């Protein structure tokens, strides 16, 4: 069966690139530099359901994205989470947080309303994440 993205993830995010394991997507919320990594495997709800090598690859992609975002966004902290309460498909949030952002110091979930990206912000963030994907693929 081919990989199918959950409709909620498709509605809330923008495609950036396909990595070795995951699809990299940008959350459509201008308040935060917020990316998602979704393993391109159907029927996976939890990371422990992935084969051992793919589980290691998932966390390698998460860690490298987090490190890249820390270097290039001016973040004070990188938040990483895989909740899945509203969307059961396994996906990992990687969020660059800054002191004083709209949810600081609490979690981004449930903090106000998402603000759609403006065209300029969308293009800037997509370019940043595409740069990550290009660098990641060349490693």
TrEMBL record:
Any matching Pfam family: HIT
| Coiled coil residues, start to end | none
Signal sequence segment: none
Q: Which PROSITE patterns match?
A: HIT_2
Q: Where is the HIT domain?
A: 36-104
* InterPro entries hit by this protein: HIT-like, HIT-like_sf, HIT_Hint
Domain of life of the organism encoding this protein? Bacteria
Q: Name one GO molecular function term.
A: catalytic activity
Checking SUPFAM superfamilies in the record gives: HIT-like
Protein name, UniProt field: Histidine triad protein
Organism name: Kushneria konosiri
The taxonomic lineage of its organism, from the top, reads: Bacteria, Pseudomonadati, Pseudomonadota, Gammaproteobacteria, Oceanospirillales
């Amino acid at each position: 069966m081919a990989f199918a993205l959950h409709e909620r993830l498709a509605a809330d995010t923008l495609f950036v690139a396909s990595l070795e394991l995951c699809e990299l997507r940008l959350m459509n919320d201008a308040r935060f530099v917020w990316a998602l990594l979704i393993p391109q495997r159907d029927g996976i709800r939890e990371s422990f359901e992935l084969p051992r090598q793919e589980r290691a690859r998932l966390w390698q992609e998460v860690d490298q994205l987090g490190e890249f975002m820390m270097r290039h966004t001016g973040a004070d902290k990188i938040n990483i989470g895989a909740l899945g309460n509203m969307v059961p498909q396994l996906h990992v949030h990687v969020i660059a947080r800054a002191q004083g952002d709209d949810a600081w110091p609490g979690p981004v979930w449930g903090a106000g309303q998402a603000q759609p990206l403006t065209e300029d912000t969308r293009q800037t963030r997509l370019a940043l994440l595409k740069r990550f994907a290009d660098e990641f693929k060349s490693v």
